[in-house]
Amino acid sequence: xQSRVMEHESLNKYKPVNCRHFINGxxxxxxxxxxxxNINPATEKEIGRIAVGGEEEVxxxxxxxxxxxxxxxxxxxxxERSSVIRRIGDLILENREELAYLEAVDTGKPYxxxxxxxxxxxxxxxxxxADYLTSMGTEAYQQDQKALHYAVRRPVxxxxxxxxxxxxxxxxxxxxAPCLAAGSTAVMKPxxxxxxxxxxxxxxxxxxxxxxxxxxxxxxxGPGSAGEAITTHPDIDAVxxxxxxxxxxxxxxxxxxxxxxxSFELGGKNPNIIFADSDLDEVIETTLxxxxxxxxxxxxxxxxxxxxxxxxxxFLEKFxxxxxxxxxxxxFDERTNVGALVSREHYERVKYYINLxxxxxxxxxxxxxxxxxxxxxxxxxxxxxxxxxxxxxxxxQEEIFGPVVTVIPFDTEEEAVGFANxxxxxxxxxxWTNDLRKAHRVAHRIEAGIIWINTWYLRDLRTPFGGxxxxxxxxxxxxxxxxxxxxxxxxxxxx
Length: 495
Prior knowledge:
It is built from 16 helices and 22 strands. It is α/β, with parallel strands linked by helices. It folds into 2 domains: 9-266 and 471-492, Aldehyde Dehydrogenase, Chain A, domain 1 (3-Layer(aba) Sandwich); 271-460, Aldehyde Dehydrogenase, Chain A, domain 2. Strands 14-15-16-13-12-18-19 form a 7-stranded mixed β-sheet, sandwiched between helices. A 6-stranded mixed β-sheet has the order 9-8-7-10-11-21, sandwiched between helices. Strands 5-6-22 form a 3-stranded antiparallel β-sheet. β1 and β2 (26-28) form a beta hairpin. α1 crosses α8, α6 crosses α16 (478-485) and α10 packs across α11. It is globular and about 70 Å long.
């Protein structure tokens, strides 16, 4: 597990960036002058400073965004808007190495993962919605010979975007691309732990030709800071948030008096149901990804693994052996599979749950809280597999959001479905079986917004994305995104 810095000369020219607000087409410091440290989680060293904004900066951003709705942005045709949005995607790919570098330094994730997944998907988000914009229609109904009814779509207005730290650029573009496609404007707040790619994205939007005031960026914290100011601002018409359920509840309460439109993608404790008739080699390969990709810091991670008793021992032996072979280390080491967790605060949280697993009667068969061999600094946790826990254990019920999974056997289809649904969350589920009828039967009984059969994380951006229960409010993707970022008016013409 020794760390070896990637020999990649082209990366030597990139440096971490100090993160300033971007308001009305220009970068600016906080009016108070306040900044905080930005820490590289792989080294625990400061790599720059982040401006801390609050109500004053959000006021400026919201005012600029509201004014921009009536400016050149509001007068663009759909094809002109599509062209500018597509250009943002082009610029992301042209700057892919720098963006991947910033993402790896900011989050601790492997550079290779950032380059191949985060940056590529971010560009594709803009390409998809640029195309979707020009092909989307609305409703029209003829009421006999009496009247014609048709729907007109218009921007929802100014949208506040509060973004998470696990997939900073990918998930921010998943919000910004449809917002711009719908003709709305944005006030973005990235996580204070991962602000750099959002800062670079603001620069690229301006370079692509987005008019001043359409895309605004305010750095800061949540309660009593920029986040809270966004949720309560009277000129912000809608708020989209990706993050934990507790924060989502607080945003809903803060936004309620102004009846803002809300879209939440919240926590998950996703089950991975493995039947004995599945292709076990394929299961192991994909389950390694669904468990430990991005250090397990993925809302859709399959953190609860349920295995049919007949293959439980075989699965556990193969899965644990493969997990032990994963390389934990420097994000810029080409061999690294698992990088650092995002912050000391989150690192301590994950370690707490690993210790709790032992207190709850679990057995840690690989991984644990010890620092990986050869690493003396950084927030690293080895891929950790826990067995022997009851379904009611906190480590089975609560979201850990790290490279920690629990494995529990089941005997019947009924028991598997009961285990899967026995949680307050309902985001994603993977079902593994070669029995087509069983696959459909189980899928229809699972309480989750996203259900995969014999795969994981396979997405078509036209499909609905979102969760049930405490995993979210609303859906994103294709027409579902447009429903949030725009409003429909019905026009009736008497014939």
